[in-house]
Amino acid sequence: MMKIRLVNVSDVDEAMRSRLRVWRNSSLVSPFFLLDRVTEDQHRAWLERSIRGEDALACVICADQVPLGLVYLPWFDRNARRGEIGIYLYDRGFMELRPASAAYAGMMEMAAAELGLERLYARILEDNAASIRFHERMGFARVPEEDGECEKNGERKRVLMYVKTL
Taking Cα atoms as reference points, which of 43, 50, 41 lies closest to residue 23? Predict the structure, then answer.
């Protein structure tokens, strides 16, 4: 039976690491991110931080050997016991396996058990209704006093803050 598994970016080859940037900047994924595009330099810096695992962590989401997307902690603070979580699916196949839910559950387990985190935050563009519903199903609650803004494609966008206690 096929199942969802998480593969640390430190354990994937350079071609897969490069593919992550292509996916991230694609029209399937980019509209849902706070930043417009990720440059090669930004991607390299993020990869180095994630591979070291000192304050960031990222895992490729796979359905057996098929890479589908990425679940990640773009930052975490072990002393404060908190961090931020995010996800994207590039390959929308295997939806019957609920890859986003399985990947989030796996990353939250790693965050709690291996990193000692107690709280995770998720920043979501206000017009991303699917992500809002997903986070609420995963047990995240909105923290309106922490909402913010970003500039996306030249226009100001409202960013909603969600939090989950692990």
Answer: 43
